[in-house]
Amino acid sequence: MGTLIARRLLALVPLLILVSFFVFILITLVPGDASVELAGGENATPERIAEVRQELHLDEPVFQQYGRWLGNAVQGDLGHSLYARTSVSQDIAERLPITLSLVAAALLVGLLVGVPLGILAAMRPAGAVDKASRFGTTLGISIPEYWLAIILVVLFAVDLRVLPPSGYVPFFEDPLGWLEHIVLPAVALGTWSAASLSRQLRAALIDVLDTNYVRTAWAKGGSTRVIVVKHALKNAAIPVVTILALQIGFLMGGTVIIEEIFTIPGMGPYFLRGVISFDVPVIQGVVLVFVLAALLLSTLADITYGFLNPKVRVQ
Amino acid sequence: MSLRTDVNELAPVAGTEAVPTVRQASPRRRLVRRLAHKRGAVLAIAFLAVVTIAAIFGTAVAPYDPNAQDILNSNHLPSWSHLLGTDDLGRDILSRLIVGARVSVRISLQTVLLAGLIALPIGLVSGYIGGRLDNLLMRIVDAMLAFPPLVLAIAVAGLLGKGVGNVALAITIVMVPGFTRLVRASTLAVKEETFVEASRSIGTRTRRILSHRVLPNVRSPLIVGMSLAFGAAILAEAGLSFLGLSQQPPNASWGNMLRGAYDRSLYTHPWQLWIPGGVIALMVLAYNTLGDALRDVLSPAQWAPTRDRRRKPWQAWNVLRTWRGRRRKTRRGLTAVTRIEVPPMREPAPLLGVEHLSVEFDTEQGRVRVVDDVSFHVASGEVLGLVGESGSGKTVTSLSIMRLLGSPPARIAEGAVYFEGRDLFALSFDEMRALRGSELAMVFQDPMTSLNPAFTIGDQLREALRLHEDVDRATAQARARDMLDLVQIPAPEQRLHEYPHQLSGGMRQRVMLAIALMCRPKLLIADEPTTALDVTIQAQMLDLLRSLQQELSLSVIFVTHDLGVVADICDRVAVMYSGQIVEQGAVGEVFAHPQQPYTEGLLAAMPQTGQIGDALYVIPGQVPHPRAWPGGCRFHPRCAYVLEACRSETVPLTVGSDGATAHTPHDVRCLRSRELDLRGAQ
After folding, report:
1. Can you give the residue range of the structural domain that contains A293?
2. What is the ipTM of this complex?
3. Is the same domain home to A257 and A129?
4. Cα separation of A213 and B450, whole Å?
5. Distance CA A70, CA A284 (A)
């Protein structure tokens, strides 16, 4: 198991180099002379243009720029915001935990709803539960999370007034307040996750429940619980974990809009302000951190995969 | 054969000439027809068509100028003059929705088609040529796929500058790597196929192989992938519009309409939020439904019985559903029973008595009887051989005793199985469960797939015991070790900690046997336990089975197609053909004086030592498919002694027939058993 983890982490290194390069060259997407655009476009003063060019070292060849940027990034320095002049690393450090807690809460919603639903649907394909869940999950993967968020706000915050429409309270200051504020965003974001998870799990379980080894387990006198929870679920989880890793990336993207709607001070609004004002260091920093987080979490999923599948583990 | 046995697996497809086949249409037309059978897909296509037409004609079909403000008429609820009402600036919502459709439709088509076009050649070349190029391309694809898609789209669209065109470009860039992966994977899969290898070996040029052999097989997955991506593209564009990066106000897109309603009407006119959001959701729903339907239609799993809604009223399911006025209860892990009469138990009661058992499968083509009026018994300590060719119904019979066939599609239509006087078909799931593994145990055909790959051997052995007996882990472990010793597995202590994939086929079958014997069952059903093993291992396995049978005085039903094995270890034999028992009796009697031509054929087809040089006898023809059982005697098309009566008359099983030679009475199903003097074996 230890060697498996080491191998997976080692495999990350070349990927990280490539990914970071992609993040860096995002700047080349800026049309025309980047330094003019970043300095404010048509209203840019020559002094400001020179300042931006100097700060981002835009005169140097791309690879040299990349090397410098990567060297700093590895040391935790992602540069400064072109406008607010604050340290991007520090800004992100303040906001990342908020966003990650939202992702975790959404994933929790996804698992708590999606897993039981997938199991129930797989128990009797084409049965009443299956049909109802098929309908529900089809809706769940089609409804845009931002619309669902707004509907939830209308229902629970505007009409029923039981939950706050927006805002955020840090968990360590007021756990109950945190919960109040995170419920709607987490449900809005997690619904899609629950729907797609339950569909994947249903399909995987139906396949596994048809296998010979499950028949063996029935023949041994296993109860439905033993068959489903022990024999089938562990095997069905193998493809589902892979899906879960993909979902993390989608959920992270979703947080950007959800945080904007609920005015949660996470990475989303920070990222958006950066995008709208062409604040390249902010954009690069946020994207890099998002990719890193997604990569680490999917590596974690990979390792879980090894735990579930002895063929991968025992070499 | 799995729990949910497909009736098509029961016999080789040959011999189905008598089955009316569906009229062959061109593949494309068949595809369209199958799609047309799916209500959801038809609705989705209709909806998409309406939206697309609206998008094409845009302002021409919009009742008002979508940007014309009319402050006096703001926030009007839907009415005849404004079908969907007006927004906070008095603009007609329907008109804005129509021009907004333009953005969504354009984006979805443009991005997906462009991304598909870019990905197709890259994926094809990468997958087909492989090597270093493939390695490099896939590294790049991996790196791009690592980005959270929406984050990348926002960054790219933002840096390129706001606007629909740049958003389209951003979404395309995000989609390309996924499609490339898909094309490459399907290319790799096809590349290994023999027909492509054959093309290659006769020197077909690569370009031609790619376009004529590989491309057609890559097409289906790509089409499905693309149709599912349309919805994703719409969601992404609407999201970016919502964030103010795509279509700029005052021009309408669905996303910025939703944003406008959210910013300005959330507390005052929340109904305005429903319209743009609902349209986005419907559009995505339509694309997803279409994509799912395409996937069903393009993949072989389309025949799964659960998907068909258009069952004719007389077909099996509806009959079952209204059975005795209530819905039949089905559950996983227990074959359903729909018999009306319960046949009585024979006297004196044997350990196991199978009485008039009939098993049916519900298929799309209607119900198919697979086992037909089968009766036999097993006495205590006796070994019964159940023999016949593949497709004769032996496995279904043995699985029915354990009630291990899945319902649907299988169900027990008639008969009873008495085990120690209890009717197994009258038991609840929990009662049946208590017997399985403890009193009745089974060893299956395929040891490679019958053990759970995710658990150790020790775990699976212990479980067999602990499901029935209240013992602690250590005791169970000790018993498991002893049992592995009993089935002659070397180094049992070490094996307990290993996983199935670390064991050979023969070892795994020994483990299966050990699992079956963990609770000292009274009856063991061994379903072709040696078929999947190679010959030397087979002999060892048989020796083991025989010695264990005597040691533990087990009763055994030994399912096999190998008469040599029957002669070796069975006391009595029942010969099955086309779902029926055609002959049964003591092994010596049946072998020496068979009264059924099929049995004679099987005996003649048995390889015997000492007859080197003779061509091996083969029964002409094939086992018919259960859907195509012939009338009269089911063996008559293959029988050398056939008479006119054999083709028309239903042949009953004659109990205790003494045959032509008059000294070996046993059960036979043949009209001519009294006159034919058939050849037996030693």
Report:
1. 89-312
2. 0.92
3. yes
4. 4
5. 11
